[in-house]
Amino acid sequence: MSPSITRMVYICGIDEAGRGPIAGPVCAAAVVLPKQFPFEILADSKKLSPKRRTAVAEVIKAQSLGWAIAWSSRKEIDQINILQATMCAMKRAYQKIARQNVPVNLILVDGNRIPEMPIPCQCVIKGDDSVYEIMAASILAKTARDDLMTLLDTRYPLWGFAQHKGYPTKAHRQACRIHGLSPIHRRTFSI
Question: Is CB count within 10 Å lower at the N or C end of the chain?
């Protein structure tokens, strides 16, 4: 009888930030966590304060086996639609992980759609609240996108991107009515 072989499962969690806004790019993150990661610090990014998200993001970057951020631009979103642009960003994030030679044999993606991937991939509805690797990806994606939108606020101060991050708040819509659209507004979205 041959001895049993235990195969390690390396999960790459993927999530996005920025599907709902009317301005800015969509961001995707991919994360592979080690067994000894401090999982208790993780949660759905929307349940963490911005300060806490930033602190946890630093731990994820320092202690993960691999992490990556990827984007789809406002122009790409307008050309191929937000769903396809999100899938492209997710695929790019995984490709960056693959280039790091991080072992991955399963990809778990938050939501109900998955991009075409070269290895087994499954979607997990509400995965950002139940799968540690997706929680970590959620935190990195939201932190990266929020930081970018705050930076873009300095370039386009009339629209208040630092406050609403491009989401269609009442104040944001009012700014669009007064000032028109900025170069980062999605033209195919209803403003």
Answer: N
